[in-house]
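Reading is simple: each integer encodes one residue's backbone shape. An example follows:

___
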Amino acid sequence: MAQNLLSQIDSPVDLRRFRESELLILAQELRAFIIAAVAAKEGHLGASLGVVELTIALHYVFDTPQDLLVWDVGHQAYGHKILTGRRDVFHTNRELGGISGFPKRSESEYDTFGVGHSSTAISAALGMAMASQLKAESHKHIAVVGDASIASGMAFEALNHAGVSGADLLVILNDNAIGIDPAVGALKDYLTKTKSGKETGRDNIFESLNFDYSGPIDGHDLPALVKELERQKTLDGPRLLHVRTTKGKGLKQAELDQVRYHAPGKFDKITGDIPTKDDSKLPPKFQDVFGHTLLELAQQNEKIVGITPAMPTGSSMKIMMDALPDRAFDVGIAEQHAVTLAAGMAAQGLIPFCNIYSTFLQRAYDQVIHDVALQKLPVVFCLDRAGLVGQDGATHHGAFDLAFLNCIPDLIIAAPMDAIELRDMMYTAQLGLDLPIAIRYPRGRGSILDWKKSFSKLEIGQSRLLQKGKQVAVISIGTIGVMVQELIGSEKLDITHLDLRFLKPLDKSQLDSLFENHDHVITIEDGTMVGGMGSTVGDYAFAKAYKGSIHKLGLPDSFIEQGPTSDLQQIAGIDRETLLRLIKSL
């Protein structure tokens, strides 16, 4: 591949100077560039490989950025970034101070909308199209949406509106039958059966919504894509182009194992092989503790069911799905539905464990309040990826769960410090509660190797005094308490350490004792300080007329960008050194 066309492209204007016949060579080069970059630096692989031809065709045919291109989620936008002036900085992708792993408005005029969560593209592009109508401006508006994303409620809401809007909107359905895990649901089955909308006439679901439907066409046939997009460019009104692609296209292993190669970590760019690691001597990941514990409990308690919105592998719900397929459900990218489905099951006496990443529970906030807490339905929320998640950045940090759940009445909020506490909280929850409970835990590995202990029932709202000392008390919640314990041990600090465990209900008697015996209280949490644990303890201290001082450590009132978790903790001031400095100053 001697030509190296990619090095000549600093913007889509350069791309449009090429002959159409040269685009096939460019596609090979772009695919090789993405593979090499992700092999060395990690990131999302399969989704971007699957849309290489589509990305080239879109920027070749449409006059971006005058024509507005919106990607859904953005896992698949690496090729887009490389073709729009970020090739030479792409090695900084997802790094501290580098470019984001997702489209981001502040990063480039070609990133028309920030996308980290799914199913937002049609709404955003429709909003842009309607704005163009109102301003009498001439732009094309294109939303690229995956088949797993278009099944989400928000995408349907946008399609429903777009169909009667008359807006100049092209929705490109990137249909590869997989999100992160294989796509699920009736719409997926329908898309699999669809051969051509022209054959099925008004039975076509998109034509029924007043969209001009075209396709399906082969998303890896560049000449066909260019020809069809040229035709679409001459049309207006709402239309949908159905494009069939293969996730991971061009790397054999990524095509064969699409779940693993969604974000495979480091791998060999030539062979595609992922190096084997011996994890047997490492503590398990929290999601694996969750998955194995859920199955263990479900085998003992037939009322337990599992629900996840499109995250069976990532959350380890798949462990129960494989063993008890009739009692564990992937509902697709549908967080609101997942929560209310759980509420319906709880209303009929089942014990639903609703497993959602912390950042995605934000999408179902009303359902947590209106459908669960208001009715005191004992749904067990297990919130994975709580706290800082590292290189996925601001869209994926679980920064707000403690704060946004804290203000909801009749909701228990728990955060285990280690794997054994997580197991015991899950065990306690399924014994039968009168209220819903949220148990939050972080991404990554715990600290305990020998974690599979027999279960112990916990007292709801009871904290755990881990160290008794003088003058200074540290109150932690969640896994950050492990760092506090290690600091106390290594520095031989004569201070008190309380593992709060439950933010709600609050262990007031233990706090009363701390206030009585300490001049300084430090709170530390891996969530936002606004409305979080520090705020709650501070409010209680004020109500009790505590005479000492409260020092709060937590995430600041700002969005934290991407980077290694340890670096982000330092920036946020919830790291070991910051805590040690504060303790010594007191």
